[in-house]
Amino acid sequence: MSYVDGFILAVPKQKLDAYKEMAREAGAIWMEHGALAFVECVGDDVPYGELTSFPRAVQATEEETVVFSWILYRSREDRDAINAKVMADPRMPKDMTQMPFDGKRMIYGGFRPFLEL
């Protein structure tokens, strides 16, 4: 069974092109180090819910859009090894304050699938 890292974040609409370029570069690095898939999705139908929602989860403003992404690995062990290589890769940015989004509002985690069809 595979393993998935998932992310939800708010990206300023005016910085979406910069985010996409950063994601392309990062995705290439993850894939080079062994990830099976690297997927980035921009919000298309993500209404602001009364109690919970993707925009609420990341405190998105009217000037921001929600991005939902995931990275697929063969296993948790592969994920841990690949992430160690990615973080040590000199092409990866080291200063999170230079990112085209607010990293403090990013939600992320590792998930072990229980069903794959």
Walk me through what this model shows:
This protein has 117 residues and is of the alpha+beta class. It has a single domain, classed as Alpha-Beta Plaits (2-Layer Sandwich). The protein is 29% helix and 26% strand. It has three helices and four strands. The chain has helices spanning 16-32, 54-57, 76-88; strands at 3-12, 37-42, 64-73, 107-111. The chain has a four-stranded antiparallel β-sheet with strand order 2-3-1-4.
Count structural domains.
1
Mean pLDDT across all amino acids: 95
Indicate the percent of residues in helices. Answer: 25-40%
Largest sheet, strands/sense/barrel:
4 strands, antiparallel
- How would you classify the quaternary structure? single chain
CATH architecture: 2-Layer Sandwich
Output the radius of gyration: 15 Å
CATH fold title? Alpha-Beta Plaits
Per DSSP, the total helix count is: 3
Strand order of the largest sheet: 2-3-1-4
Please write the CATH class name. Alpha Beta
User: Based on DSSP secondary structure assignment, what is the total number of beta strands?
Assistant: 4
Q: What brief labels describe this structure?
A:
3 helices; 117 residues; Dimeric_a/b-barrel; globular; alpha+beta; Alpha-Beta Plaits
Can you describe this structure in just a few lines?
By secondary structure, the protein is α+β, with helices and mostly antiparallel strands. Helix content is 29%, strand content 26%.
What is the element layout, followed by pairings?
Elements: E1 3-12, H1 16-32, E2 37-42, H2 54-57, E3 64-73, H3 76-88, E4 107-111
Antiparallel strand pairs: 1-3, 1-4, 2-3
Protein name: RNA signal recognition particle 4.5S RNA
Organism: Azospirillum thiophilum
